[in-house]
Amino acid sequence: MGYPDTFEGFMVESQDKWTEFTKKEFTPKKFQERDVDIEIECCGVCGSDVHTINGGWGGAPMPLCVGHEVIGKAIKVGDKVTTVKVGDRVGVGAQIWACLECKPCKMDNENYCPHKIDTYGAPYPEDMGGVIAQGGYASHIRAHEYFTFKIPDSIPSVEAAPMMCAGLTVYSPLYRAGTGPGKKVAIVGVGGLGHFAVMFAAAMGAEVYVLSHSPNKKNDALKLGAKEFISTQDKDWDKPWAFTFDFMLNSADATHEFDLAAYLGTLNINGEMHHVGLPDKPLPEIMAQMFAPNGCKMGGSHIGNRPEMFQMLKLVEDKKLKPIIQPIQISEAGCKEAVVSVGNNDVRYRHTLVGFDKVFKR
User: Fold this and answer.
1) Measuring CA to CA, how many Å separate 134 from each of 120, 215, 290, 349?
2) Residue 127, Cβ neighbours under 10 Å: how many?
3) Angle at 218 between CA 217 and CA 223, to 5 degrees
């Protein structure tokens, strides 16, 4: 049938065959008065895509088109849309709907709405069409205007795409922790999330330290703005850094292998270790006594809110920040290459799928 009745995307049929993508049509949600239809230009490849299609985070509805780092052009807007107009270049991240009426939503915490709908793999209620949300490895996406963001002209689409999830996921906790001049911030892991975190924390004025088990990433970390690179492979690496960091953002995907007491011991009094990396395996055993020596704490977060998205984009624009991106042409083979690369932690530091116009014959 084609747009607007159906969209076309690269879909996985089974978690047992998570690297096999097939281009096929799917039915989007019902178009409503605050919806925006977007013709997709490019889409970032997130670790969440891999965890979802390979079963690392549990079951998922199949067939499924993943991708929640979408950049494209608005081609249709609902009658009550006020924030986007046809022709605007816009982005969509990992959340596509919230009720906007509950307590979290009223407090600008719509990312914690108990009724939220994720950009892919989540069921829409019957009054929205009753379909499963499908993501951005596709020709189009239909999103509520509140979760559709105009992209500044100065930020290239291929760089803006991974900011829609990875960027916001690290910017929000850094901002809420008061990251800025006078703060010592540790970033654990230099990957898709971590490289954004180093860049943002430095741009926000903090003194940034990178904790990593990959010494070959030292030069990149320093170029991104880190003051020091600390190799966690070294014996007793943590001892010289006791009581140092005001805030630690853990972006790593291997926390189950950490000696958490060592990491917590580097925090200043009442400092926080904050988790945004969400591995397949549980955290190591935690004893309450581990928090006593410095009164530290642990927490986590889920993406960020709409105001934080625009703050992040302004920071990128004002500071002329440039993430490190490896584009891949979208296709069955390209999607496979991208998810395998992310799954094997081979990417430096984020993939963006490009070439949508050719593949979807525009």
Assistant:
1) 4, 38, 42, 25
2) 8
3) 100
pTM: 0.97
**Closest to 100 measured CA to CA, from 148, 146, 50, 141:** 146
Of 123, 119, 127, residue with least CA distance to 144? 119
- Only one residue has tokens 């991708």, namely 67
DSSP code of residue 264:
H
Q: What is the DSSP string of 35-68?
A: EEEEEEEEEEE-HHHHHHHTTTTS---SSB----
Is the pLDDT confidence value at 360 over 90? yes
Angle between helix 306-319 and helix 192-203 axes, rounded to 10 deg: 70
H-helix or E-strand spanning residue 260: helix 260-264
**Selection from 306, 28, 312 nearest residue 143 by Cα:** 28
pLDDT in tens, 5-28: 999 999 999 999 999 999 999 999
Vertex 292: Cα angle to 266 and 176 (nearest 5) = 60
Backbone φ and ψ of 175, nearest 5°? -65, -45
Structure tokens at 146: 């509140």
Query: How far is Cα 5 from Cα 71, in angstroms, rounded to an integer?
Result: 21
- Phi, psi at residue 297, to the nearest 5°? -145, 165
